[in-house]
Amino acid sequence: MIGGVEVLVWAMYLLGLYFTIFWLYAFLERYELFSEEARGSASGKKKLGRYPKVSVIIPAYNAEATIRDCILSVANLDYPKDRLEIMVVNDGSTDSTASIVSELIRSCKGADIKLMSQENLGKGAAMNNAIRACSGEFFACLDSDSFVEPETLQKMLHVFEQHDSELAIVTPAMKVFKPKSFLQKFQRLEYIVTLFSNRLLSHFDALYVAPGPFSLYRKSIVTDLGGFDEHNLTEDQEIGYRMQKHNYRLKHCFDAYVYTTAPSNVGQLYRQRSRWWRGSLLNFVSYKSLFLNPKYGHFGVFQLPMIMLGYVTVCFVVFFFTYFTILPWWQRFYELYLVGFDLPTLLRGIKLSFDVLRYDFGKVFIIFTLTALAITTFLLAHRSSREAVFKHGLVYLPFYFLFYYILLSFIYVAAAVQLVVSGRKDKWLGKSI
Amino acid sequence: MAGKIYLRTYIVVGFISLLVFSLGFLLSVLIDDQRLVRVEKATKVQELNYKSLQFQQLYLNTLTNNTDSCPVFELSLQSSINSLTDSLERMEGYKVSASFNQAEFNELARTYVLDNLRYWLFSKRTKELCDLDFVSVLYFYSDEKCGICPDQGVILSYYKKLLGDRLLVFPINTDLEASEAAIEMLKRRYNVTTYPTIIVEDSRYEGVVSKSGLMPIVCGSFKTPVEECSAIQSEIEEAQ
Question: Testing the interface with B: which of A208, A360, A366, A370 to mutate, by most B Cβ within 10 A?
Fold first, then answer.
């Protein structure tokens, strides 16, 4: 029967179709452009016209486990040592972060490493302090649990060279560092899909997040706009929104790889995503003036509505999952209870008849098309970031498609509830975990 | 510099999306029609079964003391009722997943109510005529007015599975009473005012009768003791 739920299912389906088909269509339309990009990337190093001074800022709070490798990855960047400044901001760590950094300053004679200290104020404040003190024309932010590849900086600066001075931020291609647990392997897949979408978003000038691991900023623009928001849960997203609001541009460098440590269990994942999601909701509300506003181009009229649809979708995934999966199973359990769990009798004379007409073909078709679109996107994403589809075997893929996004949806809805209940209290210290 | 808008792409993609969307919708409609065709076919077969039974009963009635034919008649009555139950179940399943053709399905549901009533009468007559030992249950329910009715349905299906051909359940969907006068007639006859109500061998029980509650009612109505009954009785006693 066509009831309320039915109408909802079809409406969400139509919207989901529209946005998915949009991206696939956009990709196919630019297929040549993408292939050319890939060829350019494969043909090797691009020579930079000049080597501007770059400051890499590493805000560190209790990062003794990863800070050493993090700094070393920057020191090993393929870039003239005298044009590169590394600024570690110790954000009131209570562990041995400071002494590890001091030790590195002594042992790495060739690299220009500086250590700043502040009381524990959070990542935004650490960034602003370092921006005031640094001498670079460009600066990068690097989370203390992330590691950068040697060629990454040159590739990103090359993007700056190809564009005018309105280009404010170049974002890197973020991958998961040595995924071990089930959950990390799911996140690896998720990041690959995100990379693909960032690559497309970049072509539409609709990027709005400058991820913590190694986004590269034109310092003058950031300073003009007042630096980072020190009281924001996701200051790396807020600055993206702010750039969009002032019609500055963000570009994605699809082959500039950075590796970040991903949460390895559900608790850590919840803390990370809850912060992202609450920050995202708050920023969406603060920048609502851009919503459907043609002054902000594709970002305003298409990307922001799509972000909003994302919020709605997440709620519906939770609702649909409960309605179509949890409730029927509960119902079955209850029926067993009614007859005293007498399974032998119930199984008596059971006919395993397969009646095709029993299935609700409308919904079967919805599932079929959405799965086909998801798999297509998934495969294109792997091609785009040159990752093997079956790197971790076949087992992960069905779980990834079936459960991971449902898990994320539940996390997001819980985060939204947390936001409503407890407000925006906690401070973000610049570590993904 | 103001951002760029890709109007042409938005429209083209909207067109493609609508195309894919309507394809799914169309499929939904086509499948719905197929379901209807299938149920209608089953109805025709049931009509034939009924005619055959009608003849058999006439034959039994006409030739007095012709009880040798009783086993044949009982067998065809049972198989007709079973096939009716199966296709009623299927029809109910289709009705739930059907998005369209609700009116047609309601009409079909009406013929199922009538078929059930006809067989119920048949079974009553045959029981006397051939001195058979089965229990028949009239089950009045409503999908619209009764949220707990499915519970009774589950318990009745369970006993049907347990006792097989010795229990005959005739479900009457009272949502159709506005269009089907026979339902109203029976409701008056048995004074049915709430749902679910079950009539076991002319006694009325209102509200959901639980598994342990239904056991003495059904088992007490058999003329000779039934093996499954004593098994379930000891199980229920054990649980208490």
Answer: A360
